[in-house]
Amino acid sequence: MKINLNPVVDPQTQIIVALDFPSAREAIDLCDRLPQVSFWKVGLELFIADGSTVLRELKARNKKIFLDLKLHDIPNTVASATRVATKYGADFLTIHASGGKAMMQAAQAEVAGSSTQLLAVSLLTSIAAEALKSDLQVPLEVPDYVSKLVLLAQASGLSGAVCSPHEVANLRSLLKSTGGDEFCFVTPGVRPAGSTVGDQSRVMTPKEAIAAGANYLVIGRPINAAPDPAIAWEQICQDCV
Ligand SMILES: O=C(O)c1cc(=O)[nH]c(=O)n1[C@@H]1O[C@H](COP(=O)(O)O)[C@@H](O)[C@H]1O
């Protein structure tokens, strides 16, 4: 399936809704309540609970799929897991950029020729500048650290990354100078104005994320935990333009 590499112009196709649920039943229920959503994310909780069932059901509904497994292990193990994961025919699959170049190259070799695009997760959107220094002991500012990881992903052959909307504009201009105009940026850490931030740290509104140049926005709780997910979706789409 063709992945849209242009900055977001159509929220209906470029917002990915996270199916963060503990069972296939709850996930499929939300899909069927929101037929207008074309792109869904299956993360660890749902994949561990009921992965193959959900992925089959999403395929049967002709949905695009972001399989968010955030692989991170030695190169051989990640390559083997990636080989198996491509069999699901997901559009996106995540690995952690901090696993290093050899790991990313090994995984990239496994998706070559498949319909799955690997995305490198840079710095999780839940991690704030203070935690990067005090917990992770990384003596860099967030934009510099994220840039290093994304450039490493690019040098490893990947053509997309997950980062917070705060970093996208800077990364776009950085990658232009390295011939990476078509790099795909997927941004979680998106919160409609006035909504609960929860465990996220580096957040922006949908409109701000789009203006920053994100190709796709990942949105979970503001839709999947909303009292009326259809109204929440509609409101977010309206807020994007
Ligand atoms: O890879 C991801 O999708 C991801 C990366 C990241 O840095 N931050 C992040 O929040 N995510 C995912 O994006 C979704 C965000 O959910 P909400 O915070 O509920 O909108 C969750 O499913 C996270 O697992």
Description:
The chain is built from eleven helices and eight strands. By secondary structure, the chain is an alpha/beta fold. The protein has one domain: TIM Barrel. It has an eight-stranded parallel β-barrel, surrounded by five helices. Strand 6, helix 8 and strand 7 form a beta-alpha-beta unit. Helix 8 runs parallel beside helix 9. The radius of gyration is 17 Å and the shape is globular. 43% of the residues are buried. The mean pLDDT is 94. Bound molecules: orotidine-5'-monophosphate. The site of orotidine-5'-monophosphate has 17 residues, from strand 8 and helix 10.
Going by helix content, strand content and strand pairing, the class is alpha/beta
Dominant shape: globular
Q: Whole-Å distance between the termini?
A: 26 Å
The rounded Rg comes to 17 Å
Largest sheet: 8 strands, parallel, barrel
Q: Considering the protein shown, what is the CATH homologous superfamily? A: Aldolase class I
- Briefly note the CATH topology name: TIM Barrel
Number of self-contained structural domains: 1
- Strand arrangement in the largest pleated sheet: 1-2-3-4-5-6-7-8
Q: What percentage of residues falls in helices of 4 or more residues?
A: 40-55%
Q: Which ligands appear in the coordinates? A: orotidine-5'-monophosphate
Can you tell me the CATH architecture? Alpha-Beta Barrel
Number of strands: 8
Bin the strand percentage: 15-25%
